[in-house]
Each structure stands twice: as structure tokens, then as C-alpha cells.
Amino acid sequence: MLLDDLGHPVPFPRPPRRVVSLVPSLTEALAVTVPDRLVGATDWCTHPAGLDVPRVRGTKNPSLAAVRDLQPDLVVANQEENRELDVRRLREAGVPVWVTRIETLDGAFASMHRLFADVLQVPVPGWLTAAEQEWAQEPPPGPRVAVAIWRDPWMWVGARTFTGDLLARLGCTNAVTAERYPGAEPEDVDAELVLLPDEPYVFTADDGPEAFPGRATALVSGRQLTWYGPSLTTARVALLAAVHI
After folding, report:
1. Which of 122, 154, 137, 113 is nearest to 236 (CA)?
2. Fewest CB within a 10 Å sphere: which of 2, 65, 117, 228?
3. Which of 240, 235, 227, 226 is closest to 163 using CA atoms?
4. Cα–Cα distance, 20 to 45 (Å, whole number)
5. Per-residue pLDDT band at 178 (split at 50, 70, 90)
6. Per the domain annotation, does 83 fall within a domain?
7. For residue 175, is it within any domain?
């Protein structure tokens, strides 16, 4: 019996063959690596393009009946992305659930190694090895950066977050040091550069930069900032270009 990232025992009498993913990052990782095993995903699972599997509604409100109907021998979830109540109800119905906890880049790499090598018992995928090699490079010194994730009210990426750790690995300093996802008005955020991603709030050239007169802003892919699947392979190069404009 293996323990998931939260230390919960998950029984695996055999390597799972029917997997439902409730996390977009993990859906992409599974679809690229073991496409024959992925039998269901959420409506928010948009990568890889053209993914054709049954949908089980959203990450915060999955249809547990739809999940059970797919007869999975594994459901993958995430502590931040999914509700503990849904995880508990699936487990009470006899469905094994593997919960990940991702707060750092190294934690993401370690978690995915365990998922593929220990749980699914397949070779570590090449994209994961390539991503580790790319992110092992020493970055140049970067600016003091803030990452907005919502407006009205304004919310930001704070401490103990995967995105915050990515900033540090890019050589940047996170201007927002409060825990997790605090609220603050733009004028109260002391940053040289403000990154405006396209998820969860869809910032655009006409919606976001105007709130930061006199300061540099950059529109970036939210997937490169928050997803920890195959997108990590190219995310470092794209993000370095964004923070060194």
C-alpha cells in the first residue's frame, strides 16, 4: 500500500488501468504519457488539444456519479484544486483517490515521479526528465515581481505557492509576501514588474495593464505559471523572456 502526498494510504492490488483526473495539470500529464489509461477528466481539462475523454463536470463540483460510472481504479486529485468532501465521498464509495500536494517545483517533480513510477508503474516520461534538466539551470538575477490572479477585488500570488516558487527559480523576488493568495490594491503592491496571466482571471491588453501606470507589465500564459505537467518543459524559457523584458 502506498501513501499519497498527504500521507493517506491508497490500496493498489495492481497498477491502475482506468484513471479519472480531476486536475488539469495531471490530466495533461496522463494524456501525454499513458493515454490508454485516462478514461475521464473535468470540463476544465483543456490540454492536450483535442483531448477526447468523458467529462465529469468541474474541479470544484465534479459529478461523483459520473466518476463512479466510469469504473476507475484510480482518481487523481489535488489538495488545492479539489474539495476534501469530494475526495472523502469517493473513498467512502470504494474508489481509490490519490491526492497530490504541489507547493514547489521540486515538490511537483517528486510527486509526478511517484505517480508514474510507483503508482502507475511506467517509466519516467521524457518530458519530465527534460523539464527537470531545464529548470536545473541557474537563472540570471530578475526583478521584483507580482503576479495578479484576480481583479475586483485584486488578488495576488503569495507565499507557499507553486507559482511563487517558480518566481524564485527564475531569479525573481515575489513582491507579495503574505500567505497564499492575499488581496491588495495595485498601488499597495511594490513591484517592478506585474505579470498578468490569462487564468483564472483572463487579463488582456485592454484589461489589466491600465491599472499600473508607470510600471512594467507583461501578459503571460497562466498555464506556464500554474500548471505542473508537460508545460514545464517550455515554461522556463517563456517566463524568463517575460520577466526580463
Report:
1. 137
2. 65
3. 226
4. 11
5. confident
6. yes
7. yes
Residue 1 pLDDT grade (very low, low, confident, very high; cuts 50, 70, 90)? confident
The domain in which residue 227 lies consists of: 144-243
Domain ends where: 92, 124, 156? 124
CATH label of the domain that carries residue 200 = 3.40.50.1980
Considering its fold, how many domains does the chain have in total? 2
- State CA 134 to chain mean position distance: 18
- Full DSSP string of 122-191: -PPPHHHHHHHHHHTSPPPP--EEEEEEETTTTEE--BSSHHHHHHHHTT-EES--SBSS-B--GGG---
83 or 13, greater pLDDT: 83
Q: Are residues 182 and 69 in the same domain?
A: no
Residues 150, 114: one domain? Answer: no
Q: Which of 124, 153, 172 is the last residue of a domain?
A: 124
Question: Please, what is the angle between helix 126-135 and helix 232-243, to 10°?
Answer: 30
Residues 35-61 have a mean pLDDT of 96
pTM of the predicted model over 0.85: yes
State the pLDDT at residue 12.
Answer: 87
Q: How do 193-197 and 144-150 pair as beta strands?
A: parallel
What is the spatial distance between Cα 5 and Cα 25, in angstroms, rounded to a whole number?
A: 16
